[in-house]
Structures are given as C-alpha cells and as structure tokens.
Amino acid sequence: MLDINTAVAKFSSLIQSRSSIRSLHGSNSMGSSPLRMIGEMMLNRFATQLNSQSLLAEQKEDIRDEILESVVSSFALAGFLGIDLNKELNELIILLESVSAEAS
User: Fold this and answer.
1) Which residues of 53-76 are buried (b: 16+ CB within 10 A; e: fewer)?
2) For the range 23-26, what are the long-range contacts, defined as Cβ-Cβ under 8 Å and sequence gap of 24 or more?
3) pLDDT digit string (tens) for 12-62?
4) Burial (Cβ within 10 Å: 0-12, 13-18, ≥19) of residue 3
5) CA-CA distance, 72 to 50, in Å (whole number)?
6) Within 10 Å of residue 40's Cβ, how many Cβ atoms?
7) Phi-psi category of 33—alpha, beta or left, where left has phi over 0 and alpha has psi -120 to 50?
8) Which pLDDT band holds residue 103 (cuts at 50, 70, 90)?
9) Does the global pTM surpass 0.70?
10) Which of 2, 42, 64, 66 has the most crowded CB, counting CB atoms within 10 A?
11) Which residues fall within 8 angstroms of residue 23, CB to CB, at 6 or more apart?
12) Is residue 5's pLDDT more than 70?
C-alpha cells in the first residue's frame, strides 16, 4: 500500500527530473509511443505548473494550511465519489516512472 510520504517523494522526484530546460522544451517526441507521449506531456505540464506555483507559495505564510486543506478536500471528494486513490496514484506513478525511465 502506498503511503503519503512515499507518494510525495516519488511525484516530487519525477517532477523535479522534468524541471530542467532541456526536459521541458528539448525533448523530441517524434516516433515515441503514445504512452510515452502522454507521460511526457503530463510530467512536463506538472513540472511547469509546479515551478510557477512554488515561486508564489514561498511568499505565503499559511501555505502549509492551504496545502493540507486542499489534500483533505481531495481525499474527501474521492471518498464521496468512490475513487480508490491508492490504486489510481500507484497506476499513475508506474506510468510516469516508465516514461521517465524510457526517456533516460
């Protein structure tokens, strides 16, 4: 079973691997498999979005409270909708790790 700290570490690592300019703008997806193209787009979008959000977040004093509120809201919504977040996160991590490994 995936715990929160493991998921945070894995997603952070995968997204940080995309943070270089070469990864964000220099990847050549010509001839790539559809799975890799989807994963590349996902990682690049997350990395770009998180880089800009982190710059803004550093300036907020209550960022921990906002993150916690967002996580709790997401967990509650997933519970109401019957979404198995553990399964979904595991599958997403596997996809992103395979894309990242394929790109290396």
Assistant:
1) eeeeeeeeeeeeeeeeeeeeeeee
2) 23/47, 23/103, 24/48
3) 887 777 665 445 445 555 456 777 777 778 778 877 888 778 877 878 888
4) exposed
5) 19
6) 21
7) beta
8) low
9) no
10) 42
11) 17, 43, 44, 47, 103
12) yes
Q: How far apart are CA 104 and CA 101, in angstroms?
A: 5
User: Is the CB of residue 15 less than 8 Å from the CB of residue 39?
Assistant: no
Domain, as residue range, for 58: 4-103
Q: Which amino acid is residue 85, in one-letter code?
A: L
The pair of three-digit structure tokens given for residue 99, joined into one six-digit string: 């894309």
Domain count for the chain, please give it.
1
Contacts 24+ apart (CB under 8 A), 25-34: 27/103
Please say whether the beta carbons of 2 and 90 come within 8 A: yes
> Which amino acid type is present at position 60?
K
